[in-house]
Amino acid sequence: MAVDPLFAQWLQADGDYALRETAGASALWGASGLTTERLTGIATEAAAQAEGDRQLAFFERGPFAIDVHDVIGTDWQEQLGTVITLTVKQLGYDAGQDVFLIGVDADRSTGITALTVLRPLRGLS
Cα–Cα distance between 3 and 113 in angstroms, integer? Predict the structure, then answer.
């Protein structure tokens, strides 16, 4: 299958990085804080900075519980490593719960996916 040369060049190009940090996250996590990187298809610097800000706001709400939830659908892989909002009545997330997606185990034969998430133990969505 032929690939457009311009598209191939874009795929091979170095990524752009957006570094985001806050005093709140530094105070909460101190020396145990980590710098995380995620290479995505986010197309613009503004969108990457917005996602970085969203993740910082989320991680300032630690500590966290690790939960595993079975959900309908198998199209979750692209959201791995991002903050997502789950709105699932059966999970007690009626108003929506921001969680950080750390694992995706899709079963295409049943159409069910096990999502492993970090859920804040304090604060509101």
Answer: 32
